[in-house]
């Protein structure tokens, strides 16, 4: 009896090990947390859809501080998880290290580039989506002044701002674009009080549309817009539902699709490392139009938006990428 | 827009930002004047913010949220007291423990209760402290100079802002004019003398901490149910420490403490408005510089340049009756 059990146990162990090397998807979320109603939550949705479609459980890790990111990634790699998605630019350093130590694992990172032979880097052309919502903001603005509230002051967020500014000026070249960054530490992603104050300061100066690219801080910006009866523009996820009538639109990054596709490609064996840049043409970024904001968008505005979108895809409009030269020149 | 309007709106923002700092700093004042170091202002505010957001959402009432925030913050103050008055533990360690406890617990409970990653659901305006329009404010809104002042700066705040500013003279009266205040000051300077007079040092300090808890709870409720409309993890973002700095800056006296809070709030409001703006003759001021000004000022003060900040003598020392 004992022998039988031992053999069965051994067989199970072998079986599970074989399976382990096949396909065990995992995600390490960013510091914003799984349910930030924004960037990370979008990944959560993609993961949930993957599990629903395939019945395969995805292992998840939610770090609460920076050192935990590396621990989480390397723990996932040690458990033979494959592929492992790192969510967010702030995981790049940790992933670089872990990817070197675990050359046989497949990794993907969203929003940053890690140059390793076993890493797929998925980046978005945020400037293109921001250009679109900037144009819409300029169309909706009556005062000729629009605002932008960023989270942490980094190149990625400046890229949002630059595209937004360029889009607004495309519609109205005399428009004033106010911009504020919440701070220079990761705390800037979770400071709705400060976000609200920044938005109010822009409203005080006459802005009537504000675009927030600031994670949890953005929630304070949207609340301030709702309190002051101004328009706000959401980011990453479709946030239109948060304050119907206030949310003009959202600059949606299809992070969910990116995560879903990465899993799918690894499962199908078509996965490739390298940089994958997703823009308007690839449906990587878009502006949200749904039942919550359709009353705010006139037919003219919608037609203009579609025209601009087509022009960006065709290359007629060139949107400047801030991170290309660390300057907002266009 | 003319300069006057900008100035009024900046002061208006100053008032909004300073209100929670004032409440928290006054809370710290009671505790530290009694001789108990309170580094846990941050944690108690965070607990208050979390509780207020939860209860206000469930009961659909900002006042219920405020009451619950006060109860929870009060309980944490009592825990602090139990550790460092009754058991004579290290006051800083106990305070830090409370901060860590609350930072973690608020996220965990939020996750379990609301499944939104540690956030609480967005509050409708019926469950928030909203802006109060003072009588006649709409009518005088267009009167030049005074109309702006009345409508923007004096009016248009939520009730907790008024409570925060009203608390300053009340605290001043308690500390300098009441019997309790006299004993409070004495126990922070020389607990032995108070003990010799037949007054319980422990009970006095507990009472100071009770007031401390109530004020911290209000500060927390302000952040989640007045300034914002939900709880987000770590949303106090260091304001408890700012309040502590203001307390030192104001030399543990209510009115100067209020001005210190207003100064910090003003620097914050100006920083927000100065981002990216060209100042004539200087150019663009780096945001990091303005953001760090409150801390720089505190360090300068602590170094003794702006005048000495003398802490209550018995601060940080647990009182031992007999050796």
Automatic annotation (TrEMBL), chain A:
Where in or outside the cell? Cell membrane
| Gene3D superfamilies assigned | 3.40.50.2300
**Which residue numbers delimit the ABC transporter substrate-binding protein PnrA-like domain?**
36-319
**Keywords in alphabetical order:** Cell membrane, Lipoprotein, Membrane, Signal
Q: Domain of life, per the record?
A: Bacteria
Record keywords: Zinc included? no
Which residues span the membrane? none
Its membrane topology:
Lipid-anchor
Query: Which InterPro entries has this protein been placed in?
Result: BMP_lipoprotein, Peripla_BP_I, PnrA-like
Principal subcellular localization: membrane
Q: Which SUPFAM superfamilies match?
A: Periplasmic binding protein-like I
Task: List the signal peptide residues.
Answer: 1-20
Q: Which PANTHER family match?
A: ABC TRANSPORTER GUANOSINE-BINDING PROTEIN NUPN, TRANSCRIPTIONAL ACTIVATOR PROTEIN MED
Q: Which family does it belong to?
A: Belongs to the BMP lipoprotein family.
The protein, known as: Membrane protein
Q: Which organism is it from?
A: Pokkaliibacter plantistimulans
UniProtKB/TrEMBL annotation, chain B:
What is the protein name given in its UniProt record?
Answer: Sugar ABC transporter permease
Q: Does the keyword Cell membrane apply?
A: yes
Query: Topology versus the membrane, per the UniProt entry?
Result: Multi-pass membrane protein
Q: Which InterPro entries match?
A: ABC_transp_permease
- Looking at the UniProt entry, the stretches that span the membrane are 6-29, 65-85, 92-114, 159-176, 255-272, 292-311
Record's keyword terms, sorted: Cell membrane, Membrane, Transmembrane, Transmembrane helix
- Coiled-coil annotated residue ranges, if any: none
Q: Could you tell me which species this protein originates from? A: Pokkaliibacter plantistimulans
Highest taxon, organism lineage: Bacteria
Main localization (coarse): membrane
Any Pfam family from its record, for instance, is BPD_transp_2
Annotated compartments: Cell inner membrane
């Amino acid at each position: 009896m004992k022998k039988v059990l031992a053999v069965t146990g051994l067989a199970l162990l072998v079986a599970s090990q074989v399976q382990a090397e096949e396909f065990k998807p995992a995600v390490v979320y960013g510091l914003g947390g799984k349910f930030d109603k924004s960037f990370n939550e979008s990944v959560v949705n993609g993961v949930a859809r993957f599990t629903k479609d395939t019945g395969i459980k995805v292992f998840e890790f939610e770090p609460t501080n920076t050192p935990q990111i590396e621990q989480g990634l390397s723990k996932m790699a040690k458990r033979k998880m494959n592929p492992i998605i790192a969510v967010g630019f702030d995981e790049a350093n940790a992933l670089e290290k872990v990817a070197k130590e675990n050359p046989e694992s497949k990794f993907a990172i969203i929003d940053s580039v890690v140059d390793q032979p076993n890493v797929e880097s998925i980046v978005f052309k945020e400037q293109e989506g921001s250009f679109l919502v900037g144009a819409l903001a300029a169309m909706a603005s009556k005062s000729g002044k629009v605002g932008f509230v960023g989270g942490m002051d980094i190149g990625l967020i400046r890229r949002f701002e630059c595209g937004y500014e360029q889009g607004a000026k495309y519609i109205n070249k005399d428009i004033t674009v106010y911009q504020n960054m919440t701070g220079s530490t990761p705390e800037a992603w979770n400071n709705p009080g400060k976000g609200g104050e920044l938005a109010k300061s822009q409203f005080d100066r006459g802005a009537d549309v504000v675009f927030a690219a600031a994670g949890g801080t953005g929630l304070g910006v949207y609340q301030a817009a709702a309190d002051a009866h101004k328009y706000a523009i959401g980011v990453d996820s479709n946030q239109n539902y948060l304050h119907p009538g206030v949310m003009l639109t959202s600059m949606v990054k299809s992070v969910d699709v990116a995560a879903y596709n990465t899993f799918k490609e690894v499962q199908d064996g078509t996965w490739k490392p390298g940089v994958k840049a997703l823009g308007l043409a690839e449906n990587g970024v878009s502006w949200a139009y749904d039942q919550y904001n359709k009353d705010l968008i006139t037919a003219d505005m919608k037609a203009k938006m579609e025209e601009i979108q087509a022009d960006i895809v065709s290359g007629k409009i060139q949107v400047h990428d801030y991170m290309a030269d660390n300057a907002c020149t266009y | 827009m003319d300069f006057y309007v900008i100035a009024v709106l900046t002061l208006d923002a100053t008032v909004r930002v300073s209100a929670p700092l004032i409440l928290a700093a006054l809370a710290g004042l009671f505790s530290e004047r009694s001789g108990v170091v309170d580094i846990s202002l941050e944690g108690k505010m965070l607990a208050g913010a979390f509780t207020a957001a939860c209860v206000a959402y469930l009961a659909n009432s900002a006042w219920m949220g405020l009451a619950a925030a006060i109860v929870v913050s009060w309980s944490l103050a009592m825990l602090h007291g139990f550790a460092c008055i009754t058991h004579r533990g290290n006051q800083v360690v106990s305070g830090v423990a409370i901060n860590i406890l609350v930072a973690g617990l608020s996220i965990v409970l939020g996750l379990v209760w609301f499944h939104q990653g540690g956030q609480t659901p967005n509050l409708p305006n019926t469950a928030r402290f909203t802006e109060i329009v003072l009588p006649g404010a709409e009518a005088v809104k267009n009167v030049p100079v005074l109309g702006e002042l009345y409508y923007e700066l004096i009016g248009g705040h939520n009730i907790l802002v008024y409570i925060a500013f009203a608390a300053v003279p009340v605290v001043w009266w308690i500390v300098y004019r009441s019997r309790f205040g006299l004993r409070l000051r004495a126990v922070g300077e020389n607990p032995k003398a108070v003990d010799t007079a037949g007054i319980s040092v422990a009970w006095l300090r507990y009472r100071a901490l009770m007031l401390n808890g109530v004020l911290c709870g209000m500060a927390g409720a302000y952040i989640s149910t007045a300034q914002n409309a939900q709880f987000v993890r770590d949303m106090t973002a260091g304001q408890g420490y700012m309040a502590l700095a203001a307390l030192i800056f104001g030399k543990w006296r209510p009115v100067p403490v209020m001005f210190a809070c207003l100064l910090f709030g003003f620097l914050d409001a100006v920083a927000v408005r100065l981002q990216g703006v060209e100042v004539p003759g200087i150019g663009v001021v780096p945001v990091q510089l303005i953001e760090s000004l409150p801390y720089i000022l505190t360090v300068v003060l602590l170094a003794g340049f702006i005048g000495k900040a003398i802490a209550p003598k018995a601060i940080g020392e647990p009182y031992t009756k007999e050796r």
